[in-house]
Amino acid sequence: MKDNFSTQSAEYAQFRPTYPKEVFDFILSFVKEKDIAWDCATGNGQVARELAKHFKQVFGTDISENQLKNAARLDNISYLKEPSEHSSFNDSTFDLITVAQAIHWFQFDAFYAEVKRTLKPGGIFAALGYTVMQIDEKVDVVITKLYDDILGKYWDEERRYIEQQYKTIPFPFEEMTAPSFFIKASWNFEQLIGYLNTWSSLQHYKKANGSNPLELIHEDLKKAWGADLQKAVQFPILLRIGR
């Protein structure tokens, strides 16, 4: 798995959107027992924190020490620095395994072997993610310019799985059909800039060019935003779930 987020882990914890309760309610409706869950590539622990409300014990793993330093702390969450493809867990340990906005970075065969090894019989696996946010017509045009025209060649190849809405990732499980979900938030302009600064492609651009590409569109983005103090932001959610 690639580590594209250690350098901006504090910003990731502050500005990345959080999944709504309805998504977790849907996933949990398939989970028979709620003893132990594993959140792979847990990052700042936002999904682990939600799972901790329902499970006796939650494990969150990540290869980024910086991300784990910024992760949510609760008594029933244990964090480990290790790759999801090669964990230290025993066979048939987990009732639920989740991975949020990260499965596209994994070595699929090795990871799925680990999922199948560590899931209890009848256990549930869920891969979540989200695509580019939608705000309004004017702002979306500028964001698309940033995403495609300026940062296009700086996105990792694996980003295509997000663009293809996770439909093209291998999924060797008995799959359940998921309804459409959305992350909905209200942001000010500074929150939008904070979120854009967490994009992995933006970090690649900065490393290659020594400048922040947001400078190229900041004036247009501010003009498109207008006088609104806050705007409604919506992220379409990706969800593959199976047992």
TrEMBL record:
Domain Methyltransferase type: 39-126
Entry protein name: Ubiquinone/menaquinone biosynthesis C-methylase UbiE
Gene Ontology BP terms: methylation
PANTHER family named among the record's database cross-references: OS01G0307686 PROTEIN
Endoplasmic reticulum listed as a keyword: no
UniProt-listed Gene3D superfamilies: Vaccinia Virus protein VP39 (3.40.50.150)
Any single Pfam family the record assigns to this protein: Methyltransf_11
Record keywords: Methyltransferase, Transferase, Ubiquinone
SUPFAM superfamilies according to UniProt: S-adenosyl-L-methionine-dependent methyltransferases
Listed GO MF terms: S-adenosylmethionine-dependent methyltransferase activity
InterPro entries: Methyltransf_11, SAM-dependent_MTases_sf
Key word Transferase present: yes
